[in-house]
Amino acid sequence: MVKYLSLIYLICASLLYSQDVKVKVSTDASQYQLGDHIKYDLTINCPKNSRAILPSVKDSLGKIEFVALDKGDTINNPDGSYQMNYHFRFISFDSGRVVIPSISIPYSANGVKELLTARTDSVVLNISGVKIDTTAELKDIKQPMTEPVDWLLFFIIALVVVIFVAGLFYLIKRYRAKMKGIVIERKEIIPPYEEALSRLRFLESQKLWQAGKVKEYHTEITGIIRWYFDRTFSIPALEMTSSEIIEKLRGKNLNSFTITTTQQFLENADMVKFAKFIPVSSVNEEMMKQAFAIIEEQKKIFHAEVSAIDGKGEQA
Questions:
Q1: Domain with 101 in it
Q2: Does the pTM of the predicted model rise above 0.90?
């Protein structure tokens, strides 16, 4: 019974709020040459108390390939609504009729807990290929030309190589002579989770959001978590979108707590960064709690794995 009531609730919520966020797409032309850049503009109109999230479109374009995203401006209206503008550049290496598929834009509306979805219209383009004159006479391929040997240039290059090798040998010999008798201090290696926790404590002590620097606070705290993922899981998180990070973390077989907490953490940060959402104090505090929880969870798993390895070594 609860299952059916939840389904009815979702259907009603969709009917009530599906028109809250409106999206519009356009291209600068409908006819392109093969290899031309396709300018694709996306406009998202959000009413008051709604928040839209731009998804990653790289893997859902079909025959169209993603080139770049040039984010435009955000226009705030007096009634609390706002408009977000995004400018994409695509390219197609297939000729003929090509379709840019519909893109799903998730958003939250006031009074609805679940994320709703607005979809763009698909766009049909015509890509013209390179015309080949089949009536022209076929010509043989020319044989490669043989360049005469420039012995002076050969001698100069050989001389430079000899001088370079001799200089390198001299520098290595001199360096080894200096290093004799010098004691090299070993630098203690700090685990990534310890450094991340230290950076979080320092950020917490700065009280950025309390001083009105909300965007700086969210940039710093997400930067620490992204750096931690880069060092711990070899994920280039500093250069990836939030959805790409979550996809990579799922491939690392992390527990559901880490995945869920990280997804909530990154979605809050995206709302501040892209939608100019101003969070309340409780959201800022929750962001710090989530960041500590993510690191502490991985620290606990790391120590458990080390203990298990040590235990096996003692038994052996």
A1: 14-128
A2: no
